[in-house]
Design a protein that fits this description.
By secondary structure, the chain is of the alpha/beta class. Helices cover 36% and strands 16% of the residues. It has 10 helices and 9 strands.
Amino acid sequence: MRDALAALPAVRSRALRTLEPATAASLQPSPPDDALPLLDLASNDYLGLSRHPAVLAAAAAELAASGLGAGASRLVTGTRPIHQQLEAALAAWLSRERVLLFPSGFQANLAAVASLADRHTLVLADRLIHHSLLVGVRASGARLQRFAHNDAADLERRLLAARRERPDGRLLVLCESLYSMEGTSAPVAALAALCLRHDAPLLVDEAHALGVLGPGGRGLAHGASSVAIVSGTFGKSFGSGGAFLAADALVGDWLLQSSGAFRYTTALAP
């Protein structure tokens, strides 16, 4: 480990840098030799909700009512009424039967893959899929194939080959709806139709699309009932933190009963 760190080029060495939110005083004209405020274009807080007065007031009210942390797993004493209210509201908004909350998007994606794949599964993933989903595939023990980015034809070729090789084999397809690093959007409807035709569950990571894309900001998978799981986060357009998985009642109950990533973690802060 020490040798590996020593061999790391300085240009690739990661460091943590603090960011101080701007105040009215810091935005006043400054002398040329003073540090000027910076415009943050790297944030995922697309709609500026993290500092919206109504959001802050609601958070403060819940903080006073419930305290800062949930204190336990959802299956012990961590579930508060606000958790269930949020899950029900999200399910209705997304036209899904069941929603479960998670402390982070990375954790939610691990849980989603593990619920649909095991060592007997072939996972077909977009070549630019998020790292958390790849970690989920490795943890599940499934075999992995990558299809060309946003290429429905390549996915279909691989699905056909998989069905020829193992007609009854378990399959899972992974994609994002909006790829943040490339700014590209997946052809979700075409991918969902392919997966339905070949009996392959489709998991769509909507982290960067929810709130800004799709009808009413409901994401690009909205209305595609054949999508098995939608993964979403609150750390992007919603200006907060945490995540959720949205699915039908069967998959939602399977997650509740089987997901270690849900069962063995402290609940999302109220």
